[in-house]
Amino acid sequence: xxxxxxxxxxxxxxxxxxxxxxxxxxxxxxxxxxxxxxxxxxxxxxxxxxxxxxxxxxxxxxxxxxxxxxxxxxxxxxxxxxxxxxxxxxxxxxxxxxxxxxxxxxxxxxxxxxxxxxxxxxxxxxxxxxxxxxxxxxxxxxxxxxxxxxxxxxxxxxxxxxxxxxxxxxxxxxxxxxxxxxxxxxxxxxxxxxxxxxxxxxxxxxxxxxxxxxxxxxxxxxxxxxxxxxxxxxxxxxxxxxxxxxxxxxxxxxxxxxxxxxxxxxxxxxxxxxxxxxxxxxxxxxxxxxxxxxxxxxxxxxxxxxxxxxxxxxxxxxxxxxxxxxxxxxxxxxxxxxxxxxxxxxxxxxxxxxxxxxxxxxxxxxxxxxxxxxxxxxxxxxxxxxxxxxxxxxxxx
Length: 397
Description:
Order of helices and strands: EEEHHHHHHHHHEEEEEHHHHHHHH
CATH class of the largest domain: Mainly Alpha
Shape: elongated
Number of helices: 17
CATH topology of the largest domain: hpI Integrase, Chain A
CATH architecture of the largest domain: Orthogonal Bundle
Number of strands: 8
Helix content: 40-55%
Largest sheet: 3 strands, antiparallel
Strand order of the largest sheet: 1-2-3
Radius of gyration: 29 Å
Structural class: mainly alpha
C-alpha cells in the first residue's frame, strides 16, 4: 500500500533541509529534499509541541536517509507492510493462526495508531494492564507473543533500536499465581459427585458430550487430545491410555498433529473411566476413533460448549467459571490429592517444567506431612532398611 503524500519518506542518501515555524500553541516541523529521480522537491511535516520534539523529528528522518527504514510508520501500517514475515518459524496449522487472530483483534486495535518508534515498555505495560481486565492469561500471553514477533522484525528492519515488548510476558506471569502450589485447583471440579452431575446434564443432549467430559477429566486431557484418541491407544494389559495426537480446528479445516509437548504420554485407567472405555471401544478396530459426536464428527471444545449450553449448565451447578479445559485441571488436581508423586504427575500431564505441575499441589504443607509419614515408616522398619542398604556379598578381588 502506497504511503499518502504527507507520509513520504526521504530516499537513502539524500540531503535534507529543515525548518521550524511557530503555529499557535505549537510548531510545524518541515523537512524537504530533492528526489534523485524526478528532481521534484517533496516534503514531510509534523505538528509538534516543542522545538525539542521538532529536532527529534528531524533526527528520525535523517536516520531514514541512512538506513532506508520508515521510522515514522504507524504500527498498523507496519504490520500490513511486512505481511507474514513475523510468522517465520511458527506452526502454520496452529500457533500462527492463534497469533494472527490476537494481533488482529487485540494488538492492532490497541497500538495500531501509534508510530512504531513511539511504542515504549511503559505503554505496553499499560496496554497489558487493560487487557488483564478483559481477557484471560492465555489470551494475553498469545497477544504479547504476537507483538514481540512484530517488533522483532522492526528491530531487524532498523525501524527501532530494540524491542520494548521483550520480557513483558514474564511480567504478566509473575503477577499471576500460575506456578504456585494450589493456584490451578480453583479451576477444577471439586468432587466426583459434581463431575457426574455435569456429565449427566450433558448426556441429556447426547451421550457423546457426557463421554467427552469424563474422558477429559479422568485422563487429564485436553479436548483436542480426546478428539485424537483411537481405540488402539487403550492398553488393557497395563491399564493405561496412550495420548499421542490431537485434532482441532485450524486454517482450512480440522488439523491432526502431535500433542502440545510433541511427546506421547501415558495415563492410568482409573476405575470410574473403565466402563466408559469398554463401551466406547466395543466392536471397533484399533485404528477407529474412540469418540465422535452425534453425527459422527469430531467433538471440539467449541462444539461441546454450544451444544450443551455449557456456560448456563455449569452456572446452574454453582461453577460459573468452569471451562472445558477445567476438566483437565480436575483430573490433575485429584491425582495430586491422591498422593501421586510430583514427577509422575508431571509425566502424566506432559508438562515440560515441574514448576507448572506444582500448581496442582495443595497450598498447605500436606505433601510434606505425607512425605514425613513415609520416611517414618521406613525408619520404623530397621530390618527392611538393612536389606535395602546391605551390599551383596561376593569374592573380594
